[in-house]
Write a structure and sequence with these properties.
Blueprint: H1 2-17, E1 31-38, E2 41-53, E3 56-63, E4 67-74, H2 75-80, E5 83-84, E6 94-96, E7 101-102, H3 108-117, E8 119-122, E9 125-130, E10 139-140, E11 143-144, E12 147-151, E13 158-162, E14 170-174, E15 181-187
Parallel strand pairs: 4-6, 5-7
Antiparallel strand pairs: 1-2, 1-15, 2-3, 3-4, 8-9, 9-12, 10-11, 12-13, 13-14, 14-15
Length: about 190
């Protein structure tokens, strides 16, 4: 009886300690709501996976009071991009992203490097996987997200990437020297 009670106590302790991580589904029609921080201002923005095909991804964007548009990534970008596209969005336009750049989604080459070497090259920096502190653990709706946490060599820029081979989405970036800091607030 004592062994059963001890085993139950251990089971309860271990299960409460090990929180299961949440992995949001990313597919055509998914909407990601972010907060963007640019030039001292924070504003909401929405990104959507409008068209998803092999070798083609159309990401729509909407910023209230500014407009909406879309970015198109083709095969080369999806396969081997190593930079982010940080240009000013053009309302009403569908812009094709240069082959060496991507929007929100990391390339297959970056994902492969992340899986094999626990690091990736992005915007001419090497980011290394780190263990997040409790404060750095990304959460959505109060649940920890299954994401990689990476830092640049001097720890000034941090990236959180969804653990999803098909769509390794940038969920958060802080300390971005090339563009906006982004933080995902919800995935629908």
């Amino acid at each position: 009886m004592k062994k059963i009670t001890l085993a139950l106590c251990l089971l309860v302790a271990v299960s409460s300690w090990a929180q299961e991580k949440f992995t949001p589904a990313i597919k055509q029609g998914t909407k990601l709501k972010y907060s963007a921080f640019v030039d001292g201002q924070t504003f909401p923005c929405i990104f959507s996976f409008d068209s998803v095909n092999t070798g083609y991804l159309k990401v729509g964007w909407t910023v209230e009071g500014y407009g909406s548009g879309a970015w198109i990534m083709k095969n080369k970008s999806l396969e081997s991009a190593s930079k982010g596209f940080w240009g000013q969005p053009s309302p009403g336009a569908q812009e094709e992203v240069p082959d060496d750049q991507s929007i929100l989604v990391f390339s297959k080459a970056q994902w492969d490097m992340l899986q094999k070497e626990n690091k990736l090259n992005f915007d001419q920096q090497t980011f290394t996987v780190k263990t997040p502190s409790d404060q750095q653990q990304l959460k959505l709706a109060g649940k920890p997200v299954d994401a990689f946490f990476l830092e640049n060599p001097n720890g000034t820029t941090r990236i959180w990437i969804l653990n999803n081979a098909a769509y390794p989405v940038m969920l958060k970036i802080e300390g971005n020297t090339l563009g906006a800091d982004l933080t995902v607030n919800s995935v629908e």
